[in-house]
Design goal:
Length: about 450
């Protein structure tokens, strides 16, 4: 049972809130002043706090500030009968989860409280997963391919060897770079990223090596390039396969000699950088147009990230991580995925890989109000024909009983759609009682009207 601390100097409001929250299954504690509230919190931290603003003695804003100074504090929802935009902004700026104006609307209060507690749980889940990963965004997964990647990171991170990471777009190459840098002796020095695909062809050299003032039109000041910025640390050349041939030649020299000149400069500069490059192309192929001498120089320590379609068993782990992470960021209540939804997502080909999965979770978190995400909540998935997800999920059943239930639901949904969602006509065509069909509709949560938009 979640415990809620009510802090309000008006007894009638405390009693009303106790009734509302108690009826909804919360444990309730009450205090009439800010000083009492702080003493109560010191004694036993509640799961959430409802805090009035205007109170004699220590007001709610002061209590809020003192609470934020504690090592661990419950989320605070500020309530006030003198609400205005300034008060709300100040409350949130001082650490409150939300602001509610008196008289309190029961439905809004309960929704805000549930979202608040869900958000707090998401923060706890994210913190636990991050702690297990060593304090940064973790590489989630336990399939053989990901285990190999993790073992590779552990072996190569302490070395100075150049690393080449290959894999499709969205597979998480940036996470591998970050993990290598964090576990290396260079962890306290900069990790500098260059997106080679995003730099205009004629500015690549300036971006990498810097330029002197007046070296070309628009060069109105001296600029330090990425190689110098990364001195002592790691330089990440992302999508290096998209770099033009002229720039490749200069990168090859800089990688081999750790020396270069700024554009328009004459001074040779020496740096100490570790190179990590990444690409979604096959650089070993002559058709790639990539300099083979640079490829061989980069391909000292190579690792390939598997696409998500080969990591079916990792889907639930990734969903848990993204749900916790995004719910914490968006101050939202985390949702759970129904087994049949997980079956569909495991069967999907995921052309956008992990990035596509993250975007899906974010969309569902924003648009879905239900506690459990079911197949009907899923948008059309790229590369999947309409209606195919439900049919494909039938083959992911664990036993015959589950198969019978899913196939019955899919069949009834198909018949409802055929009859334009006319329940009476569908029941008549199937030779079953309308009341029985309604029971099935409720049981399988079937749609009874067409999707809009």
């Amino acid at each position: 049972m979640k415990s809620i601390l009510i802090v309000d100097d008006e007894a009638a409001i405390r009693d009303t809130l106790e009734q509302i929250l108690g009826y909804d299954g919360f444990g309730v504690r009450k205090t009439a002043s800010g000083a009492e509230a702080l003493a109560e919190v010191e004694k036993d931290m509640p799961d959430a706090i409802l805090l009035d603003v205007k109170m004699p003695g220590m007001d709610g804003m002061e209590v809020l500030q003192r609470l934020q100074g504690m090592d661990r504090v419950a989320p605070v929802i500020v309530i006030s009968g003198h609400g205005n935009i300034e008060t709300a902004v100040e409350a949130v700026r001082n650490g409150a989860y939300d602001f509610l104006e008196k008289p309190l609307d029961r439905s809004r209060l309960l929704v805000t409280l549930q979202n608040c507690l869900g958000h707090q749980q998401a923060l706890a889940d994210k913190a636990l997963l991050t702690e297990r990963a060593g304090g940064a965004a973790p590489i989630i997964g336990d399939c053989p391919g990901i285990r190999e990647v993790k073992a590779f990171i552990e072996k190569v991170a302490p070395s100075e060897g150049t690393v080449l990471i290959t894999g499709e777009n969205g597979t998480g190459k940036e996470l591998v770079v970050n993990a290598i840098h964090r576990a290396s002796p260079r962890a306290e020095r900069p990790l500098v990223e260059v997106n080679c695909a995003a730099i205009p062809k004629d500015l690549v050299e300036s971006e990498l090596f810097g330029h002197e003032k007046g070296s070309f039109t628009g060069a109105d000041r001296q600029r330090v390039g990425k190689f110098e910025q990364a001195d002592g640390g790691t330089l990440f050349l992302d999508e290096i396969g998209d770099m033009n041939e002229e720039a490749q030649a200069k990168v090859l020299k800089a990688v081999e000699e750790s020396r270069f000149q700024r554009v328009g400069g004459t001074e040779t500069r020496t740096v100490d950088v570790r190179i990590v490059a990444a690409t979604n192309r096959d650089l070993a192929s002559p058709e790639s147009g990539f300099r083979q001498d640079l490829f061989f120089r980069l391909n000292v320590l190579a690792v390939h990230l598997p696409p998500l379609r080969e990591r079916g068993d990792d889907i639930p782990l990734l969903l848990d991580w993204f749900m916790a992470d995004l719910a914490a960021r968006l101050k939202a209540r985390p949702r759970r995925f129904a087994p049949e939804t997980l079956a569909i997502l495991r069967e999907h080909a995921w052309p956008g890989n992990v990035r596509e999965l993250r975007n899906l979770v974010e969309r569902l978190l924003i648009l879905t109000t239900d506690e459990i995400i079911r197949p009907r909540h899923l948008p059309p998935l790229p590369g999947t024909a309409a209606g195919a997800p439900a049919e494909a999920s039938l083959f992911a059943c664990n036993d015959f009983q589950e198969f019978k239930s899913r196939s019955e639901g899919a069949f009834l949904q198909h018949k409802l759609r055929e009859n334009r969602y006319n329940v009476s006509r569908t029941a008549e065509e199937l030779g079953m009682q309308r009341s029985n069909l309604y029971k099935k509709i409720t049981k399988y949560e079937l749609r009874t009207q067409p999707d809009v938009g």
